[in-house]
Known about the structure:
Two copies of one chain form a homodimer. By secondary structure, chain A is an all-alpha fold. Chain A is built from 16 helices and two strands. Chain A has a two-stranded antiparallel ribbon. In chain A, helix 1 (2-24) packs across helix 4 (64-86). The first copy, chain A, is globular and about 60 Å long. The model of chain A has no long low-confidence stretch (mean pLDDT 89).
Amino acid sequence: MTELLQYFQQELPHINGFLEGETEKMDGLVRDVAQHVLLAPGKRIRPVLTLLSARALGYGKDDIYPLACSLELLHAATLMHDDILDGADLRRGRKAAHLVYGTTETVLAGDVLLALANLIGAGYGKSRISSILASGIMSTAQGEIREIAHISEPVAQRDTYMEIIIGKTARLIESSCRIGAALATDDREIEDALGEFGLNMGIAFQLVDDALDYESPSDDTGKPEGGDLREGKITLPLILLLEMLDDKEAEELLAGLKAMTLSDERRDEVVARIREKGLGTRTRKYAADYIEKAKNSLKPLPDTPEKRILGLAADYVLTRSK
Amino acid sequence: MTELLQYFQQELPHINGFLEGETEKMDGLVRDVAQHVLLAPGKRIRPVLTLLSARALGYGKDDIYPLACSLELLHAATLMHDDILDGADLRRGRKAAHLVYGTTETVLAGDVLLALANLIGAGYGKSRISSILASGIMSTAQGEIREIAHISEPVAQRDTYMEIIIGKTARLIESSCRIGAALATDDREIEDALGEFGLNMGIAFQLVDDALDYESPSDDTGKPEGGDLREGKITLPLILLLEMLDDKEAEELLAGLKAMTLSDERRDEVVARIREKGLGTRTRKYAADYIEKAKNSLKPLPDTPEKRILGLAADYVLTRSK
């Protein structure tokens, strides 16, 4: 674990330095909102995965930092546009950008970050990198679309849930690994191996996030406790509960979610039952299976310190408590 | 002119066919809004410019249609996001998308179209094409940012106005020509020549648009008459008027625009004076200079039917009445 932490601590100044420099250059109208979202304390897991993926394949040049940050820019752009969609009022423990800076500024700042990420990617002269970025944006938008459809027509189906979390989270993490690989090599099989790693790690990451939503008080995660339930989002812990209920009670709960008519008491009760039955823990067990898959997909890679650190990063996803 | 019209009539079914096919495939949540904006009757000038630019350089393959439509997709995406920013309630003679379909659907449909354009561009395997697309998105967002800043802090300066129209219109038209050239050749000088053509034609296009805003009744343009004035946008005909007024009256008018307190009578009066003084016609004369520049920049190109049609298209920009 110390090796993983050291790697992050050594790379974070480069990553944050680049992001600070880029946002500093932006026009005043969008600078504040870009800094608000992009320079909020964050794990920078996406940039670090790009660095690790490229270096695990022997890429040694320092020109990699902008590329590593491109997925962080895309991620921030989608957070901004999502904020507008969700009406979510908390992000990373802060007020949603559009409530502070206005919808106009937030839509435009998101567009600027999308453009910047594409511009950075295209600068490396490899069209495969542009393809990966474009696919990442498309998957994220489609994931968001599915999630919205799911809120207005809630179903307790695991495959729908999986589609959503793959689109809204896992694909960008997959892309972070893929662009690192694509920079280092033209060997698609090796890129696919790192893509598989990122996809499965991303799924596990979101599963743990969804477990945490029912487990932790809001101080720790910076999000309101049981916030997904409040927003009408059906995540795995709730699906597991719905599968345990008799049909009538499950239907009643789904109907309440759809109509957004659940009382605070009913909501607290649902949260309490999910905790009582240990469904957060069960969700983490599913996450552990995906982490296992992720680590297996690293097998074709040469043995390097970075390969080892990728494995440690995967393990860390399971143990994080916020 | 007949040759130009014939070219458009011959190509429009291919262009519209592709756009219809792509929107048909989209998810239900965004399909309607994408179709509403993208399949509205339009001139399709951007796709046709990509076709003409590539073919003027000898590119003969039919795989060009998706690329030709990529700038139309970007254009539609920026229209959608602009609609949300502007509070504009009319677009191409229809109600703004977000008022009909909702802000969520419109933001997401814009993101999907941006992603699709990038995905299409990356599919041609030339990173230069991805660069051009990314620059186009960035310039458009920055043009929009400048325009918004200009509304809250109105100044009657021609260079500010030029920056805005280059960003919000001319760069995407420049990009339409550049990607066609980049597909056909790696010769950057030739690409730059076509880029110059597009940039100057795009400037002229917007100048004529801004003249039309003061000239035509709303039935013709599908936009409310004097709509720019109503939105607080300072375009060239108004700048020319402000330059004619004494300092005191100019300041008073600018202050009214800034505070959005101009009465309907005052607005009608301004429109009437701009007409009386022929400032729309003077704006068109400036446009004619840019068209001249555009046509000059075609000189390095080989003599082909497409080069001739590009010249005809440039001339048409000046004569259009809607």
